[in-house]
Amino acid sequence: MHPNSNPFNPGAGTPPHTLAGRESEIAAITTAIERSELGRGANGIVLHGLRGTGKTVLLGRFCEVASERGWIALRIEAAASTSASFAEQLVTRLTPHMLRLDRPKAGERVRRALGAFKSFSVSVGLQDVSAGIEVEPRHLLNYGTSIEHSLPDMLRTLAEAQAEDGKGVLVAVDEMHDLSRADLRALLAVGQEANSSQAPLLLCGAGLPALPRLLSEARTYAERFFEFRAVTWLDRTDARRALVEPVEAMGEIWTEAGLDVTLAAAGGYPYFLQHFGRAAWNVAAFSPIDAADANLARSIGFAELDQGFFHIRWERATPAERSYLRAMAIDGDGPSRSGDVADRLGKPASALSAIRTRLIDKGIIYAPVRGRIAFTVPGMATFIRRRDEAQE
Ligand SMILES: Nc1ncnc2c1ncn2[C@@H]1O[C@H](COP(=O)(O)OP(=O)(O)O)[C@@H](O)[C@H]1O
Ligand SMILES: [Mg+2]
Question: Does the beta carbon of 274 sit less than 6 angstroms from any atom of ligand 1?
Answer without folding.
Answer: yes
